[in-house]
What we know:
Blueprint: H1 3-24, H2 39-45, E1 48-49, E2 58-64, H3 71-81, E3 86-90, H4 99-107, E4 111-114, H5 128-146, E5 152-153, H6 162-170, E6 174-176, H7 192-202, E7 208-212, H8 218-234, E8 238-239, H9 242-246
Parallel strand pairs: 1-6, 2-3, 2-7, 2-8, 3-4, 5-6
Amino acid sequence: MNNYSSRKERRIQLLSMLLIVLISSPLLAGFNSPVVKDRPFYEKTGQIVWDVHTEEKKIAFTFDDGPDPKATKEILDLLKKYNAKATFFVLGSKVEQNAELIKRELAEGHEVANHTYSHIYFDKSVNTEKMREEIVKTQQALEEVIGFQPKLFRPPGGYYNERSVNLAKHLGYTTILWSWHQDTNDWRRPGVDKIVNKVLKNVRNGDIILMHDYNPGTDQTVKAFSILLPALIDRGFQFVTVSELIQSTKSIPINK
């Protein structure tokens, strides 16, 4: 090997070593990084919950983006009629003007959880301080209304990465997503029948079902929900909050 080739090879080696050092640098770790851990890791540690493995016929309906004066009230009326419980992932920007609805949710045995202040997607373009602001502002708004901090957090759109998961944990939250086969896409206004069939054809013990109590299609959501509740009761299912569902198994610790 001539001297030129030898020097070229050494330069390549040095550049490779430098790249490795930069990638592993703590200054860059977690900074706008993509998701580098997979679902089994997060499920095992309990840092993210998609659904719960249980032999009991229990499922959790969840409603995002509210409260809404009309749709949330109608959903609460249905839950009360069928003695069912649900979890509401609320936006901080809507808490103050809908405080009585949130108080009603708790008074009737439902769960209230954090869904950011302004429904911002936690993708790699959002820095950690902005994420913190979105979670903490909603937390403060809820504490003013209900007097305590909820324990569950759902990132809008299901966007998450290591930074958001670690931040939520640091702030005292467990990140909650939903069963992949139970995304009703009700916000797209797919039609009442499609929403109903999506749930009924795929329902399993321990499902976390995603719906919305504020979106352009809430009329379809409410109608579909009025069909789903009696149909699922006929199949023997119980409707519980996400925290109650998690408590059905000892394998998922709720962040405390």
